[in-house]
Write a structure and sequence with these properties.
It comes from Aurantiacibacter flavus. 68% of the residues lie in helices and 7% in strands. It is mainly alpha-helical. It has a two-stranded antiparallel ribbon with strand order 1-2.
Length: 170
Amino acid sequence: MIRFPAFRTSRIALLPLLTLAACSSEQEPADLAYGTVQQMMANEVQPTADVYWGAVRFESRLEPDGSVTEEEFEPKTDAEWEQVAEAARKLQSFAVELQTQGYAEGRGEDWLVFAKGLDDVSKKAEQAALDKDPDAVFEVGGTVYNVCSACHQMYPPAELETAAGDAQSS
Ligand code: HEC
């Protein structure tokens, strides 16, 4: 069962990568729609997933008197719901792109399975947004996160383990 602290941890773990990435520019094959996988993840996939994950969220605040207030956020207007659906559609198109030769070449069979998995879960994510169902958006958001993590476990971002180690105590 994934809850938001897991998302927070992952974001903390991944942030240092953005800085490191700037120093390690390798070759950029011209036929890749979003640049290297690393660039695509950092510039497109993560920001888009953040839009989806941020749409329905809980925040707790410590009041001056020591009590804790829980606040729930969810989209209110049609336009806000549409942004969530749009984020899910973008994740689908990234998933499709990851399955193309340019991104899949040299990877194992499981690469396609993970990419297909992202496509499938992003479709469910879109449906939840079209249904304007906050609970479903929250739940499917957790599944999206699991799919991201599954691929990263097999194809770990270069600095992920170090960064995760550093962030563990925070
Ligand atoms: C099909 C496999 C796959 C899926 C699915 C996947 N990723 Fe990645 N991701 C990678 C690979 C491979 C890297 C490492 C790229 C590198 O460092 O060369 C990576 C790296 C990253 C990075 C680090 C980028 C950087 O600056 O170094 C972030 C952030 C990221 N992914 C976010 C996500 C999110 C969010 C999702 C789910 C919505 C996701 N990824 C789904 C394969 C995947």
